[in-house]
Amino acid sequence: MGGIPDDSLWYATALIASLSIGFFAGATYARDFRRVLNVNPELSPDDDCKMVLVVRTDLGMRTGKIAAQCSHATLACYQTLQVDNPVLLRQWERAGQTKVALRCSSEDELLDLQAKAKSLRLCARSIRDAGRTQIAAGSRTVLGIAGPTRLVNQVTSKLRLL
Asked: Which residues cross the membrane (predicted)?
């Protein structure tokens, strides 16, 4: 009978399946890579990176409370960067994980800083307190900002050290 041999049919099916898998894997990788570039297209391998923790001083938080809220902000930024910009996260880790604590005087100032950071496509995560100890529930306490140092400085250069 003059049909297609079974082996040829199997190889053709395997070839089509392999090409399809390769195409979809490549498309997924390219989409993820473009997403990373879109988060911070200005990032170069030589850029220093840092994380800034902006603490509201008008709330009167004690030292331990500030430390806990800064820890929450650090972790929130880290988790966000793991998903949204792992390249930046690796650069920050390799550069020594620089963190700087700064002060701001109000929630309005904190929100303005967050908006400016987001406009520069920086990672910006604000922390709201649960209200179990010193601070009213839902109060924004700390803003974490992470990214290339030159961009972070555009947002925070006028703030004073905590």
From this structure: 12-30
